[in-house]
Amino acid sequence: MSTTRTRLPGLISLMTGDDKHHAAAESTVDVLWVLFDRVLRVTPETLHDPGRDRFLLSKGHGPMAYYAVLAAKGFLDEAELADWSSVRSRLGHHPDRARVPGVEISSGSLGHGLPIALGTAAGLRAQGRDARVVTLVGDAELDEGSNHEAIVVAGRMGLDNLTTVLIDNQSSTHGWPGGIARRFEIEGWAVRTVSGRDHEALYDAFTTDHAGRPLAVVAVVAPKGGH
Amino acid sequence: MPDMREVFLTTAEEILDTDPDTAVVLADISAAQLAGAARRHPHRVLNVGIREQLLVSTGAGLALAGLRPIVHTFSPFLVERAFEQIKLDLSHQDLGAVLVSYGASYDMPAEGRTHQAPGDVALIDSLPSWYVHVPGHPEEARRLLLDSVPGDDRVYLRLSAQQNASPYFGVGLQALRHGRRGVVVAVGPMLDRVLEATEHLDVTVLYTSTVRPFDAAGLRAAVTGAPDVALVEPYLRGTSAYQASEALADLPHRLLSLGTLRESEVRIYGTLADHDLAHGLDAGSIALSLKEFFR
Asked: CB within 10 Å: which end of chain A, N or C, has fewer?
């Protein structure tokens, strides 16, 4: 089984039926690949290991890139992808943790992943585990107030086992004056802003030293519809 | 004697001290009382401030990490303010937690409507597979909390300022009085006033502190002939009517539901007794309703 990034567009097109892909499918693909290929300590063999790293997809819509990466990494059989969203399939337009191996949370409604991730990171810390919790949110999703509750408290708790990667395609309705990074910085997070397409820059950002502070990686991609 | 909330807080502290797999999540309410426990267990007593969405989600995340969370604040903020978090982050994720509310339907009457939650059990009841405990005595509250911590069930423990004179620890619907004319089900703090109201009625009185799952078999066993059943619940009138109707579906039966009013908000302050009267839940009003129903 090849596990190169170049296979992903083909896997995504099994679901979209479109080699150019949809923005929602595609804005996350490089971030997901870098995480599952190089950062997260979780495999199909360790997906029930209590010491595994956790990835919580908060932005649950447009999960095609997620399913493609899970298939490329062996959590799913890629033969399942073409049938996605049918009544026979366990792969829906929003992922279901009870059905899809490797999916830590069921998501779709916005603003749940980061608050749950905070609790998971706190729980792993209370147990003395060194596992890492990474959650992916969108910049428009950041509009949900529940995220702001979590940003404040994670900063005060100094949850350095928590990482939020924020896909910034500038789709927030009212925007974030001063930039999204400021919202995290002011609450005590370590923050890196990088291109959401640059694998080396993403890897470097995810492995930034951030002792005593949670880490936010702002991954900038082209604006929605701007391909 | 300490009330249900005080007993809960001391019991929660004992649980934290003895079980390293437990955690308590707070949103400022009761944080001062648990300050000592928070000093001893800084990573297992989490006060998120006045953030109820995060309160519930944090509990879900702790469960995802393998801990057993006890999540506590006043009933309107715990169940109503963050209901989607309860629905998605606990139920839909299939994660367990022990949600413990204080305030019941109108335990802080002078605070007004903002601090009342008569619809809390009905809301939880819209979700599958929850245990709902409505203790009628502080000792029942303690026992139900201790029983709820092992495992990973979803539990709602509804604490109240109102209580009965004695605890009852049995499981399901327990018969405390036997009669021939019909059955009255008293939930939690409604028991003593139901016993008073039925003193001169020839009816069976069943008591329970656990309304979900509902003891359909117990109700079924208690009825005789063409059954007349009255439910007396300390929250929204008719919350358990569906359960009772299902239990008696194949029998011609009559059902009376007593509880807090549905037709209007009770916009008064005053005392617990004032609200009991306004909702028809004092012993005298219950007696009148039951006499009319069982005549």
From this structure: N
Summarised one tens digit per residue, pLDDT across range B117-132 is 999 999 999 999 999 9
Chain A neighbors of B23, CB-CB under 8 A: 122-123, 126
Is the domain defined by A5-220 classed in CATH 3.40.50.970?
Answer: yes
Q: What is the full DSSP assignment across chain A?
A: ----GGGHHHHHHHHHS-TT--HHHHTTHHHHHHIIIII----GGGTT-TTS-EEEE---SSTHHHHHHHHHTTSS-GGGGGGTTSTT-S--SS--TTTSTT--S---STT-HHHHHHHHHHHHHHTT----EEEEEETTGGGSHHHHHHHHHHHHHT-TTEEEEEEE-S--SS--TT-HHHHHHTTT-EEEEEETT-HHHHHHHHT---TTS-EEEEEE-PPTT--
Q: Give the tens place of pLDDT for each residue, A89-125.
A: 999 999 999 999 999 999 999 999 999 999 999 999 9
Domain regions of chain A by residue span:
5-220
Q: Report the CATH superfamily, name and number, of domain B4-159.
A: Thiamin diphosphate (ThDP)-binding fold, Pyr/PP domains (3.40.50.970)
Fold of the domain spanning B174-294: Rossmann fold (3.40.50)
Provide the token pair at B46. 């989490």
Domain assignments of chain B as residue spans, ordered by start: 4-159, 174-294
- Whether residue A105 lies within 8 A of chain B, CB to CB, comes out as yes
With an 8 Å Cβ cutoff, are B57 and A115 in contact? yes
Q: Is B220 exposed, middle or buried (0-12, 13-18, 19+ CB in 10 A)?
A: middle
CB B38 within 8 A of CB B45: yes
- Indicate the pTM of the whole model: 0.96
> Min CA distance, A118 vs chain B (Å)?
6
